[in-house]
Amino acid sequence: METTDAPLAENEIRKQLYRFFLALDERQFDTMTQIMTPDGLWRRAGIEIRGGGMLLEVMGKRGADRHTRHILSNMIIDMETAEAATARFYSTAWVYVGAPDEKGVCPIDIPSSIGVYTAKFARTEKGWQMADLRSKPAFKQQK
């Protein structure tokens, strides 16, 4: 990959990650499937979610009263080739289960978790798509 192409690719990958987690938080699960490759794998909460159909099935079981917000940070994107890249980053997550107030605002507490994520991306005819996403917990809220 030419050095002038790398920053453009890194920026598109970064935007795809932001889109993915924003879609998760906003319950726009169809958008998430468009960011993944057709056979993309997401290892989440002990479950291997492969492909858009399974992603929609799993997300469809997510409680309507479950509200999340993810903040991504410390993102490093390594271009392996012109067609492949790996992103590593932290995700700080807040989770609230229950009804928001009359203005649609959920109460806040300390973050529920901080995870260390690795995402593999492939350049496809649709642009940069996520082929593999996995995480491991670094911090978890004590009950």
Describe this structure in words.
There is one protein chain. This protein is an alpha+beta fold and 143 residues long. It has one domain (5-140): Nuclear Transport Factor 2, Chain: A (Roll), CATH 3.10.450. Helices cover 27% and strands 47% of the residues. It contains three helices and six strands; from the N terminus they run ααββαββββ. The chain has a six-stranded mixed beta sheet with strand order 2-1-6-5-4-3. Helix 1 runs antiparallel to helix 2 (29-35) and helix 2 (29-35) packs antiparallel against helix 3. The longest helix has 21 residues, at 5-25. It is globular. The N and C termini lie far apart (48 Å). The model has no long low-confidence stretch (mean pLDDT 96).
Radius of gyration: 16 Å
CATH class: Alpha Beta
* Strand composition percent: over 45%
- N-end to C-end Cα span: 48 Å
What is the structure about, briefly put?
The protein is α+β, with helices and mostly antiparallel strands.
Core attributes:
six-stranded mixed sheet; 143 residues; 47% strand; globular; Nuclear Transport Factor 2, Chain: A; alpha+beta
Tell me the layout of helices and strands:
Blueprint: H1 5-25, H2 29-35, E1 36-44, E2 47-50, H3 51-60, E3 66-79, E4 84-97, E5 113-124, E6 127-140
Parallel strand pairs: 1-6
Antiparallel strand pairs: 1-2, 3-4, 4-5, 5-6
